[in-house]
Amino acid sequence: MASELCKTISVARLEKHKNLFLNYRNLHHFPLELLKDEGLQYLERLYMKRNSLTTLPENLAQKLPNLVELYLHSNNIVVVPEAIGSLVKLQCLDLSDNALEIVCPEIGRLRALRHLRLANNQLQFLPPEVGDLKELQTLDISTNRLLTLPERLHLCLSLQYLTVDRNRLWCVPRHLCQLPSLNELSMAGNRLAFLPLDLGRSRELQYVYVDNNIHLKGLPSYLYNKVIGCSGCGAPIQVSEVKLLSFSSGQLTVFLPAEVKAIGTENDHVLPLQELAMRRLHHTYHSFLKGGQQLVLWLTAAPPSVCRPLTY
Question: Which residue ranges does the record assign to the Disease resistance R13L4/SHOC-2-like LRR domain (predicted)?
Answer without folding.
Answer: 102-189
